[in-house]
Amino acid sequence: MRARQLEVFIAVMRAGTVTAAARMLNISQPALSQILLHTEDELGFTLFERVKGRLRPTPEALEIFADAERLSAGLEGLRRKTTDLRLGRTGLVRVAASPPPAMAILPRAFTGFRAQHPDILLRSHMAPIAAIIDMLRAGDASLGVAMDDRLPPDIEAEVIGSVGFSCLLPAGHVLAGKAELTLADLAGEELISYRGNTRPADELAHAARAQGVALSPSLEIDVSISAIGFVQAGLGIGLVDALLPWHQFAGLAVRPLANGPEFPIALLTSRTRPLSRADEMMREQIRAACSAILGEHRAKA
């Protein structure tokens, strides 16, 4: 019994007449009768007997009706599922990001996505880049956002923007009187910045050499957000990415690093794992959020 025959059989069982069943399925009475006759021919037995203008199910029809309803419900569920997948209405989107984009980009991206697709479950993972790569490879995340595009060959890195550096000064620091700072201004200061062998540390070291400035952090950090407490405690000047909204934190004077290096914001995917439609839509939201945030940064500069 094919899907259309199944629909006609169940409609007639529920409606009791050809007229009512045809109305339920939005087809003509002759078309429904024809499908019903073909179904009985293929099955080799009669499904209905005409009794006083109504169709009375035969014992064979009653025998298969419960199974037909279960099968019909399964088919309808499959139709809904495939429609939802086609339209991106169901599923799970998992995004892993390093702390700056996780805190600055993903909230805006998730807000835009949720407004259009409220039924899709979102899952955010904050992790260092090595862990993001592992999650993409294992399928534990479909998308990654990191501040590095130097990645293994099985990871696709789409650069969606670039960002410079900010200087976080303790309140009342003498350098807070300047509108912007240079690497030369920071020479000889106690610096709180990235540990070696990371992308931002490499970019800063290269720029310092090019400008003839010696930079050596006295306090190394793994993630920029951790600099806040150290700066507030007066342990030095934080030299960190400019992506996070540093002005919202109390006890800091934030100044841009002029003539400093930039490093990339990259959208990561696995080359070996295809994205779902929902993942594709989230990727678009991340691109848009990153573009908007960097545009706001440029407008303030």
What structural class do the secondary elements suggest?
alpha/beta
The biggest sheet, with number of strands, parallel, antiparallel or mixed sense and barrel status, is: 5 strands, mixed
Mean pLDDT comes to: 91
CATH class of the largest domain: Alpha Beta
Radius of gyration equals 31 Å
The fold-level CATH name of the largest domain is D-Maltodextrin-Binding Protein, domain 2
H-E string? HHHEEHEHHEHEEEHEHEHEEEH
Number of strands: 12
Helix content: 40-55%
Keywords: DNA-binding, Transcription, Transcription regulation
GO biological process, one term: positive regulation of gene expression
Family: Belongs to the LysR transcriptional regulatory family.
Pfam family, one: LysR_substrate
List keywords for this structure.
D-Maltodextrin-Binding Protein, domain 2, 301 residues, rod-shaped, five-stranded mixed β-sheet
Can you give a write-up of this model?
This protein folds into three domains: 84 residues, Arc Repressor Mutant, subunit A, CATH 1.10.10; 108 residues, Periplasmic binding protein-like II (D-Maltodextrin-Binding Protein, domain 2, 3-Layer(aba) Sandwich), CATH 3.40.190.10; 97 residues, D-Maltodextrin-Binding Protein, domain 2 (3-Layer(aba) Sandwich). The chain is rod-shaped and about 100 Å long. It has eleven helices and twelve strands. By secondary structure, it is α/β, with parallel strands linked by helices. α2 packs across α3 and α6 packs across α11. The strands form three sheets. It has a five-stranded mixed β-sheet with strand order 4-3-5-12-6, sandwiched between helices.
